[in-house]
Amino acid sequence: MERSTIVRVHEGLHARPATRFVKLAKGFESDVELVKDGKAVSAKSSVKLMLLAVKENQEVTVRANGADAIEAIEALIGYLENPHAGLDSEAGEAASDAPAAVAPQGASPIAVPAEGTAKLQGVAASEGVAIGPAFAHFPAEIEGPGRRLQADEIDGELERFRGAVASVQARMDRTLAEDSLSGGDRGIVAALRDIAADDSLTAGVEKFIRDGDDAVSAVIGAASSIAADFSAVDDHYLNARADDVHAVGRQICLVLLGQDEVSLETIPQGAILIADDIGAWDLARAPLKRIGGVVCGHGGATSHIAIIARSHGIPAVLGLGDKVNALRNAKVVAIDGNAGHVIVDPNEAARAEFATRVEAAAQERAGLKVFKHLTPSRADGTVIEVAANIGSLEEIEAAQEAGAMGVGLFRTELLFMRHMHLPSEEMQAETYSALAKAFAPHSVIVRTLDIGGDKPIAGIEFPDEENPFLGWRGIRMCLDRPDIFKKQLRALLRAAIHGNIKVMLPMVAEIGEVTRTRALVAECAAELKAEGVPHAAFDLGVMIETPAAVLIAPALAKEVAFFSIGTNDLTQYIMAADRLNPTVAKLNDVTNPAVMAAIELTARAGVAAGIMVGMCGEAAGRPDLIPIFIKMGLTELSMSPASIQRAKKTIAAMAAEK
Ligand code: PEP
Ligand code: MG
User: Fold this and answer.
1) What gap in Å lies between CA 586 and CA 270, rounded to an integer?
2) Whose CA is closest to atom 8 on ligand 1?
3) 545 CA to middle of ligand 2, Å?
4) Which of 119, 186, 404, 472 is the 20 to 30 Å CA partner of 25?
């Protein structure tokens, strides 16, 4: 029997919804197929489902054959029409694989390495400095022996293959069961385990073996063919899954060959791991506490490797390309994850300099611990809130460990960027509620989606723009897309009952942007009331990061509950110097008198209106500038957790001077 419907799963049956659909289908004995445009695939294989590329609003047919066919069709059609009903909450999973956003900042300033050392430039993917023995990890490509099997060898080879799959799955299960695995790492490993368990891969390999191929060649053949299918789909997320299929295929081959992956288990304490590419699974289960730093030919700031390195506080420089080969025989490597530099076999002077920086950072960290519980105040007794900038729930612990007095900037774009579909209201409400609960009674300032064409995300079509930094981004995009914005506002209103949620708008340039947002908030609150959904009001503030906002600050201050100065963007817009362009880096200086004047104008307007003025740009954590900002009237400073104790110390010292 069969039934057709229109798919209402947001963004279609991509990886996560496909996995859920398969989980549901596997709960039934019947054979179940999903049919689109005349093409039918098993509903019990997530790889096949993903490759069917079912999009939202397309018509599909669910076909079932077996004792429980009616129930299967009902449940699967139900999921396609209303994906949020019935299944496990999306929130837990989504929260657990949100990425770590902001790396802990190295305690020492970026120093120029000594003369006479070979310095390679890569992508600064995880902050901090390190020097240590090189641990080169360049596993050889696996080639199939290309042996043709005799007819009487086939059953044995099939058994060998099934045993290898079972052993890879068991290894992944053991990794998943480890308490030490962080939520984010667990999400990555679980996705790979799904592939190892998928019928498309196993059935493909078994077919090759039945046709007479040896198991290793069969795995390579089947994995390459599935990977090619993923690469051919017009979708960046699915293209990246090709690497995952290769990685899983490699693991199965290694078991078949009786070889161990050149193991990361033996990495010495403090070593710098060097590789062309490292599988996310390999890194997640490596002894991360021993790894001093990571250097890779592949990868960028948002790759899985960068996310894992940042969440474990490991400095990393990625994206070196072929230059990484220069490190194959290195003995000692020094890396600066703040600047993206790698120094191969540093000379004595550079070694000494790095050792000093690493030691100074460690000593400083140890000495600052006494400031963790301090509530710093000005000489007149006004408390200065020293809060954390974070971008995911995994960073809560680090922020609390550092002594954060709440969150001054929760960057929500990572929630949106990590998934291949827009996050649901439910998932967002769970995430914001968890934050509010974790820091109550301190406030948690959630910034509404701040994204533009330079960082496209699935589910939002951005136009091609000549200057995306001056384009359709932040509050501009959100106000044009109330379907997206209202979900976020509704989620924030719902989370506000769990703690002290405040909401902040990015890239504001006009008062109208605030009044239009207020109207949408009122609309969302009225809807929630009518639906009987518990919710509470929140304070609405704005980031001051455009010159326009500075110049209208006195009027803006009358409309909002607080200002938070975003010095990163404010500096680039005041100085007309792209914050990502190294050739104009000198102009991109917050201490330039023009930028400092803009900060002062903002502070004066906020103080005169009696609203809180805070800062959440990088400058907020600078000990040399904190006294100036506090004298200007700022009462909240939000920064990377790693800078919090130093900032508290600076404020305490300032008060003591009086
Ligand atoms: C800023 O611009 O200062 C800021 C904090 O926001 P972001 O760095 O996320 O643009
Ligand atoms: Mg900004």
Assistant:
1) 34
2) 568
3) 6
4) 186
CB atoms within 10 A of CB 521: 20
Q: Is the pLDDT of residue 216 over 90?
A: yes
- Identify the residue whose tokens are 């109207």: 519
| Pairwise CA distance, residues 73 & 57, whole Å | 19
Give CA angle at 300 (337, 125), nearest 5°.
20
Write down the residue that tokens 């592949």 correspond to: 298
616 noted as active-site residue: yes
For ligand 1, mutation pick of 469, 508, 543 (most atoms within 8 Å of CB): 543
For residue 565, which atom of ligand 1 is closest to its CA? 3
* Cβ–Cβ < 8 Å for 490, 527: yes
Could you give the CA distance from residue 346 to residue 114 in angstroms, rounded to a whole number? Answer: 9
Distance (Å, whole) CA 554 – CA 604: 8
Both structure tokens of 465:
């723009």
- Measured in degrees and rounded to the nearest 5, phi and psi for residue 14 equal -80, -170
Query: Ligand 1: which of 392, 448, 454, 545 to mutate, most ligand atoms within 8 Å of CB?
Result: 545
| DSSP code at position 539 | E
* CA 387-388-394 angle, 5° bins: 145
Rg (alpha carbons) of the chain, rounded to whole number: 27
In this prediction, residue 103 has a pLDDT band, given cuts at 50, 70 and 90, of very low
Q: 14, 137, 304, 419: which is the annotated catalytic residue?
A: 304
The terminus-to-terminus CA distance of the chain in angstroms comes to 82
- pLDDT of 52-80, one tens digit each? 888 888 899 999 998 888 888 988 998 89
The two beta strands, 341-344 and 385-390, are: unpaired
Taking the C-alpha atoms of residue 433 and residue 376, their distance in angstroms, rounded to an integer, is 27
Ligand 1: atom nearest CA of 413 is 9
How far apart are alpha carbons 101 and 310 in whole angstroms? 8
Which ligand approaches the C-alpha of residue 640 most closely? 1
Between 360 and 115, where is the model more confident?
Answer: 360
Residue whose Cα lies nearest atom 6 of ligand 1: it is: 566
SS3 409: strand
H/E element holding 205?
helix 199-210
Q: Which of 471, 453, 562, 560 minimizes the C-alpha distance to 517?
A: 560
Q: Please report the pLDDT score of residue 227 as a whole number.
A: 86
Q: Which are the contacts of 416, defined by CB distance < 8 A and separation ≥ 6?
A: 422, 423, 449, 451, 457, 459
Query: What digits encode the pLDDT tens for the residues 335-394?
Result: 999 888 999 999 999 999 999 999 988 888 889 999 999 999 999 999 999 999 888 887
Residue that has been written with the tokens 């326009």 in this structure: 548
Distance of CA 37 to the CA centre of its chain: 35
The pLDDT-based confidence of 114 (bands split at 50, 70, 90) is: very low
In this predicted structure, the answer to whether residue 599 has a pLDDT above a threshold of 70 is: yes
The pTM of the full predicted model, rounded to 2 decimals, is: 0.61
Is ligand 1 within 6 A of the CB of residue 616?
Answer: yes
**Amino acid 108: pLDDT:** 34
Residue 116 confidence (pLDDT) above 70: no
Tokens of 526: 């009225």
